[in-house]
Amino acid sequence: MNHTLRISPRLFALVPAAVAINLVVGTIVKELSLPVFLDTVGTVLVAVLAGWRAGALVGTVSQLLLGLLTGYQYLPFVVIQWLLSLLASFAANRRGFTKLWRTVLWGIAAGACCGAVSSVISYYFFGGITGGGVSWVVTGLRSLGASQPMAVFVGSSSTDILDKGIVIVVVGFVLRSLPRRILGRFPMAARAVGK
Length: 195
Description:
Elements: H1 9-31, H2 41-50, H3 52-70, H4 78-93, H5 100-126, H6 133-143, H7 148-177, H8 180-183, H9 187-192
Helix pairs in contact: 1-2, 1-3, 2-3, 2-4, 3-4, 4-5, 5-7, 6-7
């Protein structure tokens, strides 16, 4: 099995578009201070279209650019992009995008995994306060008497389940709406939706 990322012209065009989707959607959501991020739509889309390595490339470039534009606090979360890319590819290989209910279940599972890892990063690197809507959830839980580690875990996990669930469902809708001739160019995506 070949374990390298082959950069085809199609992938070469897809990566910058997916990075732009991550940055634009993520910035809009951040400015609205919503308790989600939605900055992984491009990562998941590319992971399902071209494999986890391509998705991880999109996620890495997105996090590096976000770090350069808005501050270093986003750099440690590149691990979440990598994990989500792996999970999205795994879901695609298991035909996880064929039906809405399957997509929702994969979104919840991905969110739970990413939330658990994110809570550790958030707690150990930033004391649980990373800015935006997630910090509101953590602060709310602290005011209700939760310990800092528990508030960070519950806050990160719940918001990541919502966030990754939305992202994976949106990508599922996009994939299921693609014509067969386009899906034919991306065998992994065709398998993901059962076509």
